[in-house]
Write a structure and sequence with these properties.
Strand content: under 5%
Structural class: mainly alpha
Distance between the termini: 14 Å
Number of strands: 0
């Protein structure tokens, strides 16, 4: 597919983005914007699923 170093970099960025999305989703949820918070958490789950597919 790609150079293994770039592949590892892409996976690392995806995992960091997953954490940021979960954190932002929970923060947004607590501020009262529940729909945006849920959408961010769903996006994090989808991104984490993609990471799991890429690593298998």
């Amino acid at each position: 597919m790609f150079d293994p170093r770039i592949n590892a970099l892409m996976l690392s960025i995806a995992v960091i983005a997953t954490g940021a999305l979960v954190w932002g989703g929970v923060t947004t949820w607590r501020r009262g914007e529940r729909q945006k918070g849920v959408l961010m958490i769903v996006a994090a789950v989808v991104l984490l699923g993609n990471v799991l597919v890429w690593t298998v």
